[in-house]
Design a protein that fits this description.
The structure holds two protein chains of two kinds. By secondary structure, chain A is an alpha/beta fold. Helix content of chain A is 32%, strand content 22%. In chain A, the strands form four sheets. Chain A has an eight-stranded mixed β-sheet with strand order 4-5-9-10-11-13-14-18. In chain A, strands 2-1-3-8-6 form a five-stranded mixed β-sheet, with no helix packed on it. The longest helix of chain A has 18 residues. Chain B is of the alpha/beta class. Chain B is built from twelve helices and 14 strands. The longest helix of chain B has 19 residues. Classes of the chains: A alpha/beta, B alpha/beta.
């Protein structure tokens, strides 16, 4: 079992959803605590402790559960929000920003999904005249443990009633069991993060393997689910063009790329704090070999000519492989895209 | 020198005897023992005493302390951990006051087990207090966080080895722990003797020695740079080329560093080359060109000194050779 201990909040004790999570993890020792945030993040618990003892908090999320997404987060012309149904991830990606974010690698499952749906409904109502996107996966993988959390079943009725609201499920997982229990909806997009085979092996520990992700995408597309892709983060390497060429060739054998709803591209980037953590946790990682620079705003990334060359090159390869040009966009590079005249399309299935 | 730190003198007894330590009290640190290799400090109970006395001792022995090891008894906070077991602690947490933890934690060097400890702000004599600490750590003591903080402040590697003495909370056996302190000390001493005494601390392991080959000269900072760029793997043929190119040992090292940077990072080297190409005409014709070193902003600052018509003609030629659209395309990623 991936968890060494479950810490359940008093307020979650009476939740049937929490009870079912506990039922599915019968052999994990458990402890009742007053509130999860009395413990979670209160001390600096080293990130790599997750390899030895990863703990699960089952809790109720208080305060805002749906928040506006950063600029240049998604496709243009719409309102973008992310929602908080969980904290942290049991995967271990060397570049992951979560290692510098929470001061703890432990997972938190929030069981009050109804509150999230209520906030989504309010955000949708307040955004009349716009498409509204709700992104899952900002602080956790949205499918990896979905068979435990039941969140898909909680969110599905809302999105089936609200075609103007769109749900994005970001993932590096091939765990599509819970998803296949739901009917495909035109406004729900499963977006798979993909990287060349070697990059997944080298940097994305414990995630679904390359072939598993392609297989999951194939299965989802076959069943009628909308699929999308993230090539993010792109990490430069001498053979980066060949690597992405191979990835796109494999993808085109697995799925119909002309029907991919969107492809986002982004290069590896860190806040200073996360960069420091990467150096502590993965001192020999070849990510650090690259020509990353501390940039004008304190963020660590490739220089502008470098990253725009990477983005343009891989964008061109994707379009040549069949991804519709208007379905590609550059994540967190909005101003650069403007400067470069790179396509930043309107969202798919626009009303 | 290794600094061994205990809270109570009874926990340290077997070490004082076993290592043949002699009393060496200092002002403010009355309970200090020493031999040539080991200094043993007894801090007294509590986080503040531990922090103060460990810091004072490290300040006095700053240049010679290579490792700090905290040894002693600890209470058990979680079920399933039997008493009398010895743990090499993984991470040390601290309690600022009851119900509030210190944010800062310290992870021990070297091999350790999945066993964390929290230094409590007061004795843990009731079950509520123990239950509040248990989510943070497996064991509890009163000093480890202060000692770890002192070690971190002085940049000295820290380890903690604890023997479980009793259950923290209402069932705590403070008084009988004191009675059995000699036995705990003996067990810890045997563990230290068998597992820690001979092992060099991470800080005392000397780095592999390496020097530049004959015919090259590197400053200390160039040596660090060469090592970080993997200079040791440079093929002999490449070194011979640098030697043939110039007679200056310093120039050879500069060429070597440049070559290492370029081969390690070909994309950056290619961008550098492209920058040189685009701006080369301006520079050749007398312009001083300042560009954003971070390569985020394409704006350029050009300066030139003009005294004669010929100077003016020269810098005009420089401007004619420079292509602003090309420079902008470079910034847009179109440069290969």
């Amino acid at each position: 079992m991936i968890f060494s201990e479950i810490l359940i909040e008093q307020d979650a004790l009476n939740s049937p959803r929490a009870a079912r999570i506990l039922d599915r993890l019968p052999n994990v020792p458990r402890r009742t605590i007053h509130r999860y945030d009395d413990v979670f993040g209160r001390v600096n618990r080293p990130y790599l402790h997750k390899r030895q003892d990863l703990r699960l908090f089952v809790a109720v999320k208080r305060g805002q559960t749906v928040k506006p997404a950063p600029l240049a987060y998604g496709l243009r012309g719409d309102k973008h929000f992310y929602f908080v149904q969980a904290f942290n991830c049991f995967y271990e990606c060397e570049y992951c920003y979560l290692q510098g974010y929470f001061r703890s690698p432990d997972l938190v499952f929030f069981v009050n999904h109804e509150d999230i749906v209520e906030e989504m409904a309010r955000a949708t109502a307040a955004s009349a005249g716009h498409g509204v996107w709700f992104h899952a996966g900002e602080f956790s993988d949205s499918l990896a443990l979905s068979h435990l959390t039941e969140e898909l079943a909680s969110f599905w009725p809302f999105f089936s009633r609200q075609p103007r609201a769109r749900l994005e499920l970001r993932t590096k997982s091939a765990n599509i069991r819970a998803l296949l229990d739901q009917q495909p909806l035109d406004n729900v997009f499963v977006s798979m993060s993909l990287a060349p085979r070697d990059k997944i092996l080298r940097y994305e520990h414990k995630t679904a393997r390359y072939e598993q992700r392609l297989q999951a995408l194939r299965e989802l597309q076959k069943r009628g689910f909308k699929i999308a892709l993230h090539f993010d983060p792109i990490i430069d390497a001498p053979a980066v063009e060949a690597e992405y060429g191979e990835l796109l060739a494999d993808l085109s054998r697995s799925v119909d790329l002309t029907k991919v709803s969107y492809l986002s591209l982004g290069v590896v980037r860190f806040t200073k704090q996360v960069y420091t953590q990467v150096k502590v946790n993965y001192p020999t990682s070849s990510i650090l070999d690259g020509s990353l620079k501390v940039s004008f705003d304190g963020k660590v990334r490739y220089a502008k000519p470098h990253r725009l060359w990477l983005l343009r090159t891989i964008q061109r390869l994707a379009v040549e492989a069949g991804v519709p040009a208007q379905a590609t966009y550059l994540c967190m590079e909005d101003s650069a895209a403007d400067d470069a005249g790179v396509t930043t399309p309107r969202m798919p299935s626009e009303d | 020198m290794t600094l061994l730190v205990f809270a109570h003198v009874k926990e340290a007894e077997c070490f004082i005897d076993g290592l043949g330590l002699r009393p060496a009290p200092r002002r403010g640190v009355p309970r200090l023992w020493q031999n040539e290799e080991v200094t043993l400090l007894v801090t007294g109970e509590g986080l503040e005493a531990a922090l103060l006395r460990a810091s004072s001792t490290l300040a006095a022995t700053e240049t010679s302390a290579k490792a700090v090891i905290n040894l002693g008894a600890a209470g058990v906070l979680r079920d399933g951990i039997e008493t009398g077991r010895i743990f090499r602690i993984r991470t040390v947490y601290g309690e600022r006051r009851r119900g509030l933890a210190h944010q800062q934690s310290f992870t021990c060097r070297g091999a350790h087990e999945v066993c964390d400890i929290i230094a409590a702000s007061e004795r843990v004599l009731d079950d509520d207090h123990a239950a509040g600490l248990a989510p943070f750590a497996h064991l509890v003591d009163r000093e480890s966080w202060g000692i770890a903080m002192a070690a971190a402040s002085f940049g000295v590697p820290f380890q903690a080895v604890k023997i479980t003495s009793d259950r923290a909370g209402a069932a705590t056996l403070c008084w009988s722990v004191r009675e059995s302190a000699f036995e705990l000390s003996l067990r810890l001493w045997e563990y230290y003797r068998d597992h820690l005494a001979e092992a060099p601390s991470p800080a005392t392991v000397s780095p592999a020695t390496w020097s530049v080959p004959e015919g090259f000269h590197a400053s200390w900072s160039q040596m660090q740079l060469l090592l970080s760029l993997g200079a040791r793997e440079t093929p002999t043929a490449a070194l011979e080329q640098f030697k043939a190119a110039t007679t200056s040992a310093k120039d050879r090292t500069r060429r070597w560093l440049d070559w290492l940077r370029r081969s390690r990072n070909p994309r950056a080297a290619a961008m550098e080359e492209r920058t040189r190409q685009i701006l080369g005409g301006l520079r050749r014709h007398g312009w001083a060109v300042d560009s954003d070193p971070e390569l985020e902003d394409p704006a350029l600052t050009l300066r030139a000194r003009v005294e004669t018509e010929r100077d003016l003609e020269r810098i005009r030629r420089g401007l004619d050779e420079f292509s602003l659209p090309e420079w902008r395309r470079f910034f847009e990623g179109d440069w290969r």
